[in-house]
Every structure is written in structure tokens, then in C-alpha cells.
Amino acid sequence: MKSIVLYPVLLVIVFVNVCISCSDHEGDTEKPVINLEAPEEGEILKIGSDVHFDMELSDNEMLRSYKVEIHNNFDNHGHDSKATRAEGETVPFLFNKSWDISGSKNVHVHHHEIVIPENTTEGAYHFMVYCTDEAGNESYVVRNIELSHDGEEHDHHH
């Protein structure tokens, strides 16, 4: 008789433990999913214009934030600390910003907040998107893009 009574009690204890681990995210090892729709791989973005940025983010538990980083890839990441620039010369574009999206499992991001300054150096760049969930799991995607004065100008209103 005792074993019949104990079995449901053990089930309840196991179930409660599973739920506790869900709430504090210790069991969440699944990385968020990034579906970056724009900019596309190889896209040429217009200097002096804003970037059409469009993506879907999702996580099995809860998202926390996403970050966009844009840096030049002129020399395949060989960094020269001795480089100097004359006044008024163009400068490689560097962008790094995070957005808080906590409290959501699925987020559609679409904005034109990233603006490429007029004095930006033309050439090859990396457009990187990182996404972190509440448990600290991180995913990222990289697009090879080009910044050019002849790039595609995007309409602010769509």
C-alpha cells in the first residue's frame, strides 16, 4: 500500500523541480534564432543614408536583447594602430548599439535607426547581429556588405 501512495508524491516532487528550473532559466541551453531579412548578404548600402534593417527574433524561453555591430573589413581584420588621418578625410564607419527586447519570445524588428555618415569610407564591411536570451545564450549572424556613395537609398516610410 505504501508504494502506491509514495509514487504520486514522487511525481509531484519531480514536476515541481522541473517547473522551478524553467522559471530561473538554468535549464535553457537553446540559443535564440535570428532570421535577418535585411540587409542581405552582399548588399550595397548608400553612404549618407539610413539602413533598412529587418529581422525576426525568437527563443524557446524568453529573449533579452539584440545588438548590431558594423565594422570595416578593408584588410581582413588586420588592425594598424599607427594609422593617422588628415582633417576632413573619410573615416571607416563603426557602429555598435544594443536594444532591450526582454519580456518577449518572438520579436519582429524593423527600423531605420542606423544612419551611415556622409564622410564614411567606401568599401567592405561586416554587418553583425547578436541576440541574447534571458539565460545568456547568444546567437549571431554576419553579413558581408559594402558601403558606397552609389548604394541603394531606402525610403523612410515603409
Description:
This protein has 158 residues and is mainly beta. It has one helix and eight strands. The strands form two sheets. A five-stranded mixed beta sheet has the order 2-8-7-4-5, with no helix packed on it. Strands 1-3-6 form a three-stranded antiparallel beta sheet, with no helix packed on it. It starts with a helix and ends in a 10-residue tail after the last strand.
Could you write a compact summary of the structure shown?
The chain is mostly beta strands.
List key phrases describing it.
single chain, 158 residues, five-stranded mixed β-sheet
CATH topological fold name: Immunoglobulin-like
CATH architecture: Sandwich
> Tell me about the biggest sheet?
5 strands, mixed
In total, the number of domains comes to: 1
Report the CATH superfamily. Answer: Immunoglobulins
Q: Total number of β-strand segments?
A: 8
Radius of gyration: 23 Å
Stretches where pLDDT falls below 50 for ≥5 residues? Answer: 16-25, 77-86
Adjacency order of strands in the biggest sheet: 2-8-7-4-5
Instruction: Please report the number of helical segments.
Output: 1
Give, in order, the helices and strands.
HEEEEEEEE
Helical proportion?
A: 10-25%
Which class in CATH terms? Mainly Beta
Structural class: mainly beta
Average pLDDT confidence is 82
Please give the alpha-carbon distance between the first and last residues.
69 Å
Shape: elongated
What amount of the residues lies in strands? 35-45%
